Amino acid sequence: MEYGSAERWMSQPPGRRAYALILGRHSGIYPRRFRHLKNVPLVVDDVTQAAGLRPYLLRYLPEGVYYDRNVYAPITEGRTSDIDYMHAWRSRRFRGQELAFDLDPENVDCPIHGDIAEKMRRHQGLSFCDWEFEEIRRQAAALLDDLARRWKRLQVVFSGRGFHIHVFDEAAFALSRKQRDRIAKSFARRYPIDEWVTSGEMRLIRLPYSLHGMVSRIVIPVPRTKLERFWYDDPKAVPRF
Fold it and tell me: From start to end of the chain, where are the E strands?
């Protein structure tokens, strides 16, 4: 994991952030002594820099590393976190949430494998073919250009399977839950996004420069100029073990 690059990603806006690890929910691969944590997000909120995650990654060997898109007020020295993360929007320490859009290849209707309901019936809900990847990449490019008409600070990220689009404009951080719900519903009518991410219901998202353990791909930002030619076996996305 490129801790320096991850730290730069997390540097804006200023405020306290939290991370989360998923040990083995999808892969079923995890240290057996942590089987009681297999399916639950393990929140890490006592590190101030991304490099502070390293001891946790070596101990728990998670299949995925995430960060909380919420930004919180700093903790006074000598105090511990008192945030109820399940109800963070009501916390007096809540300062805003990064707006994001999540596009996964299984969300598109494939001429070969059908829609998401058919894939789930065949227990293929998390698998995808080349046609589905190309289509979700095309949709991500179109959505990015659409969002650029409203916001300026945008970044698209290869998630290991699909794409995430992050909005860093200050005005987007200040959006209310109702405003996010309306935005999610509006864009879901045109693009295969996961509404619960954009609405803020799901606050966690994969940390760029970490490893997506299910597919052994590195989560990396992709420049807009290279997006339409990007492929999932790009050398920058394939780990060198």
Answer: 19-22, 42-44, 64-68, 70-72, 94-97, 99-103, 154-158, 163-167, 204-206, 211-212, 217-218, 220-221
